[in-house]
Every structure is written in C-alpha cells, then in structure tokens.
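Hi P.,

Sorry for the delay on this. The queue was packed all week, but I finally got your sequence through. Input first:
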Amino acid sequence: MCGIVGLWDSRGTRHFDRNVLLRMNESQHHRGPDETGTHLAPGVALGHKRLSIIDLKTGQQPLFNEDHSVVIVFNGEIYNYRELIPELTALGHVFRTRSDTEVIVHAWEQWGESCVDRLRGMFAFALWDERQQTLFLARDRLGVKPLYYAELPDGTWLFGSELKALLAHGGLRRELDPRAVEDYFALGYVPEPRTIYTSALKLAPGHTLCLRRGQAAPQPRQYWDVRFTGDNLVSAEDAQAELVERIKESVRLRMISEVPLGAFLSGGVDSSAVVAMMAQQSAEPVNTCSISFDDPAYDETRFAQQVADRYGTRHFVDRVETDDFDLIDTLAALYDEPYADSSAIPTYRVCQLARRHVTVALSGDAGDENMGGYRRYLFHLHEERLRSVLPLGVRRPLFGTLGRLYPKLDRAPRFLRAKSTFQALARTSVEAYFHSISVFRNDMRDALYSPEFKRRLAGYNASEVFHRHAERAGTDDPLALIQYIDLQTYLVGDINTKVDRASMAHALEVREPLMDHPLVEWLATLPRDLKVRGNEGKWVLKKAMEPHLPHNIMYRPKMGFAVPLARWFRGPLRDRVRDAVMNGELMRTGFFDRSYLQRLVDDHLAGRRDYSQPLWSLMMFEAFLRKVNATGASSDVPAQRPVPHLARVA
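Then the structure:
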C-alpha cells in the first residue's frame, strides 16, 4: 500500500519545482514510510511513498518500462498479476521485477485504456506515456483506494491519494462548495465525485481519466458498473456452495504477501467468514485482531473469541475505553474533509492494534451492501410493500399529514415510533431511502441553514445524489435499487474512506475479500429471496457458513461498530459540544441558524430528544474548519481567511 502524488502540465513542458513535489509527497508519509521515490521530467512530476508488501527488493516506484517512455506511480494491489505476467510475456513484454506494478505498465502498452478491464484488485494509479504525451489516471471498481485531482488556472494538474497532498501544493483554492456542505449534513460524508472544495474532485470508482497534451480535458470515463439482474436461477443449495468457493478464492488471492498478514475479527458474520476461509487455507495460525469495550452494550469480543478458538488463531485483543473521544481533532486532520461516521474511532484503534502484529489485514467490509445485511434494508422492504398498495397521489397527502402531526418518540418502543415511517410512506422509494439514512433530514436541514446559505444552495438538495445513481441502477427491484445506491455512495464515501484513512494512518494495508469484483457481479445476479428471507438479512451467506461458524455468531442481533455518542454529549463532552456548536468556527461561517443550533443542544442535553448523530456531524464540521484555518496559517501554504470562502452555486 502506498501514497501517490503528481503534477502535470497540460499546456506545455514547464519544469516543476522539486521542493513542491517533495512537500506534496511528504504530506502522505504515513501511507508509505518504507521508501520514497520521485520522477521529474519536462511537464511531469511524480511522487511515491511506499509501504512494501510484494517484491520487497525490486518493486520501487516510480517504475518504468524498458525504454523509460512509460512511468507509473501506483497505490494498491493487483491480485491476478501472477496470471497476467506469463500472458504479457508471451506477447513480447520483458519484466525486470516481480511486482504487480510492472504488470500495469505492460498492460497499458498492450491494451491502452482498456488495461483496467484486465486488472483484478484495489488500485489508484497515475501513468505517464512520454511517446503519446498522455497522463492516465485510474481508480478501482469499488473505490477501495482513493484518488483526488484538480486543474489549476495555469494548466497545472494536481493529483494524490489524499486531499492533503493537493493542499500541500499551495496553489489550490479553498472555496467551500455549498453543495458539498449540503451533501455532508445529509449523509455524513462528501460523496464522489465532489470534494468539500470547488477546486478539487475525486475520481469516481470504476472510472479513468485520460489527459493528452494539446487536447481539451475529457470527462472521466466509466469502465465498470454492477448490474443487479436477479435472474440467476441457481438453487439455494448450489448458491451456498458457490458462495463459499468464491469467498475462498477471493481470500486466497488476498493472502499473497511477503510481510506478516492477519485479519480483523469483530465477531460479526462477515469478518468471521473471512477468518474461517483464511484458516482453512493457511498452514500457520491466522493472526486476528479485535477491539474490546468496557461497556457490554458495545462489546463483541466474546463472539470474536469463539471464532478464534474454533480456528486456533493467534488472537490479539485491545481494550478501548468507551470514553475514547480524544481522537476528534486527529480524525479531522486524517480525513481532510468533514466526516461524521463515529465508528472511525474504533476503526482507528483496531488498525492501531493490528499494525503492532501485521502489515496486512483482511476485513469483512461490503458484506452488508452485497448481500442485504443492513437492518434498514428490512425496514425499507416492509415500507415498500405498503407503498405498493396505494399510489403516491394518495400516500403523499395522507401520510405526509400523519408524519407532521405524529410526535417524535425517540425513547418509546419501536412500534410506537411511527413518525419516520409515516414520513417515508409519503415519499417515493428513492426519497424514502434517502430520508431514512439522512443525518439531518430535509426538514432539519431547512431549519439548520441560514437564509444566506440557502440562497447559495440555489435549490440544490442532497437527494439529487441518490436520484442520479437510481437513474443508472437499471433495476426496479426495491432491494437491488438501494443496494446499488449504497455501493455507489455509502460504501465508497463512508466505509472505504474510513478504513483507508484509519489503516494508512498506521501504515497498515487492509484488503477486502467481499469487494472482489467477480464476487460482487455474481451476487448481483442472485434473486432477492436469497439475500433477504423473512426478517433475516444475508440469508445465503449465513446458510453457507453454518458448517463453518457457530450458530449464535450468525443469527444474533447485529450490533455494529459504535460508540456511545448520546451518553458522551450528556456527560464528559457536555461542555465541549455546547462550545463547539455555539461558540466555535460554525457560527463564524454564517451557514447556520443560531437559534436552531441552540435548540439541538438544549433538547439533547436535557434528554428531550436524541440528537447525538446531528451534533456529532456538527462537531466534526467544526473540527474540520479549525483544521483548515490552522493549515491555512502554516508556512507551507498561502494564508487563508479565518473561514474558507463559500462558493456560489450557479
């Protein structure tokens, strides 16, 4: 795993300042502390920070082809590189290393832009072809590895694995994008391809960007998408058997390493399934890592221990106090953008633990998205049955009125908490799902923003992100539709972002077997009743794992990887949350309505409502603003206004 950075001149062949490149590269030192490499030539500058995993002796980057006309910097792993080497060798290519990086170089020479179709793995890379005067940027299909880019007014292109690398250049404008702010307070993250700044973008998953000197910059090209067909007529028994073999193959490919390797083991079905498949293919005990909490309501270590005992793993457990909230400012610096998933705290800690024992760790991420595991999927399907009975013209006024009049009963039994259900039934399927997962729902965001900020938004609503993806989903199946939306938004913008930054902060490589794209494509062909049956999500996975895992691991209520925000904000963080929301950088932006912020704080602290998630998102936004201001005042970038400028939406 690594960090990449670069500069490219679209207008000519200017000579870039080596010190600027080094500064950008060093901003990502945590991603690759083992080696540093750079390449400067007229019109191009590439930097690389290496975490050595494969081909430790000869895999240094930037890496060239035989005549040095093609050069690459690469972050990730190509799991089928051993298959591609003999194929490319037979086509006349000469390999000087045993690295997967060199495979990409020769694949580009052989197949051009379509080389990405042949790559199986997680990757973000930048390749410069001197003969063709072409810069080629690419990102893997599921967005496991990040890639940011920007074009400056003088024709310079910047790119890097993290946004901080672009900021370290010194020439990137820091205007906040009001649409990104709206996206953040709805979703808790800034979804692709936007960033928090108007001047920078993320390359979306499954996309490439091919820049040719002397030609106008094209739009990114999508080379892959998943299609939820649900038309696979496989029997339940055959689906279970095939799923086991597919996961086993994906795990086997991700166990290729020349450094110590292990796995996260939370005690949930996904990570437990990965560990089971690892143990069955490993001659040595598997290294497993878990986090324990002092609060039993958040602790799953007894379940993780069952799996560790069953497979004789070398199991490491680190205890974390549930009042582990000192990471707020660390996380703000780590993510470079506002990011409001509080599970980033335990994720950071488990990566910290794992790095003491291994350099590579396998995870169980994406099991819920691919196989229908989230509880919100069950709620959505139940609501969808009701939506199908009455037309929208009847539902919208009827349930809309009930949703407005029914009280918000956060502490009541679930069957009495009907306000959100009524609100969802008054909406279309896509609108309802967006409503159900929003941190600040539409009415809350309307109350949150100041009149001036609303004018800047010019009518934009974050639900447009979901509608855009829904139009491309190619399915009317209610489960497949929201799975597709989650794969394009939540998995990439939240889960993958969280794991990449938390792991790279500790120079730990994390591999995700359940994001293997052939597995994802196959799962998308399975009918809905193999994923959700009755009130059981991930049905086919649980049935497939019954011979491999204890029954109570698979059929217990899902806990998640959470922290006690509500208790924090009424206890040890009581003064901090009030100060951050009411007296910090938030009020200086002019984005927010002060009276509504006051109400959020007062109602939560008094126990009248649970606003822990909205308050956390506000605290993380405030921490981001403080980090931006501190960065703006540092010596290596131009000084900023006390608060970043807010761009106007046209």
